[in-house]
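hey
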């Protein structure tokens, strides 16, 4: 399948560009100003980017959040990232920046089918990361 991020983003759609990322408006926004930070490299997962690319991503997120909070009446920004096969078909690694407002009902609109996992096992596995 052809990747829309690699093949279909037009130069005039790019709002901001860094060495490894492009920033565009989301084509199906949750909120006005909903942005995507898209990796220029076709990688499927945050674990595939280098430490320097990760730092660049975080710095870019911080800069964009500063613009939203300095110039617009947002309460904050939700940063959402999908990894691996859960992403929409025809895309690769990207981060959503969604402007948030008091009482915007963002979390009230989530309709997630719950899937049980053994929480004690998760807790144990997380603890082993730092051991």
């Amino acid at each position: 399948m052809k990747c829309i991020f690699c093949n279909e983003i037009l130069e005039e759609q790019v709002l901001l560009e860094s060495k490894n990322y492009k920033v565009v408006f989301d084509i199906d926004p949750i909120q006005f100003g909903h942005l995507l930070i898209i990796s220029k490299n076709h990688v499927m997962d945050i674990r595939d980017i280098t430490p320097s690319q990760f730092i660049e991503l975080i710095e870019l997120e911080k800069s964009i959040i500063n613009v939203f909070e300095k110039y617009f009446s947002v309460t904050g920004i939700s940063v959402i990232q999908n990894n691996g096969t859960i992403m929409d078909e025809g895309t690769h690694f990207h981060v959503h920046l969604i402007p948030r407002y008091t009482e915007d009902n963002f979390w009230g609109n989530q309709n997630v089918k719950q899937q049980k996992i053994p929480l004690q096992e998760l807790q144990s596995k997380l603890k082993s990361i730092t051991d």
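The two ends are 41 Å apart (CA to CA). The first strand starts at residue 16 and ends at 17.
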